[in-house]
UniProtKB/TrEMBL annotation:
This is Sulfotransferase. The keyword Transferase applies. It comes from the Eukaryota. Belongs to the sulfotransferase 1 family. GO terms for molecular function: sulfotransferase activity. Keywords: Transferase. Residues 2-92 form the Sulfotransferase domain. InterPro entries: P-loop_NTPase (IPR027417), Sulfotransferase_dom (IPR000863). Its EC number is 2.8.2.-. The keyword Transferase applies.
Amino acid sequence: MEPDLHLKKLAEFLGCPFSPEEEASGLVDGILKLCSFDTLSNLEVNKTGKLPSGEENKAFFRRGEIGDWKDYLTCEMIQEMDKITEEKLRASGLKF
C-alpha cells in the first residue's frame, strides 16, 4: 500500500512537495497518523457531532468488516447499486 509514497505523490501533484527537512522531521508520518481511520473515527466530533441536516457524523464510519454493508443497505439500494455497476461495467466484458 505504501501510504507515505502516495502522500508524497499527492503533495507533489498539488505543488506542495515535502522538503527533505520535513520528511526527516517525521512530518509525513505525522500527517498519516492524523488522517488514519483510528484517529478520525475516535474524534469526539465524529462520535457525537451532527450535520446541519441532522445526520450523525458517525454514520460516515463503519466497522469495516466483510459483509457489514448488509447492515446499512436496503434491498432496494442493493438492487440499484447492482444495476448501476452492471451498466457502467457492461463494456468491460465482465459477467455479473
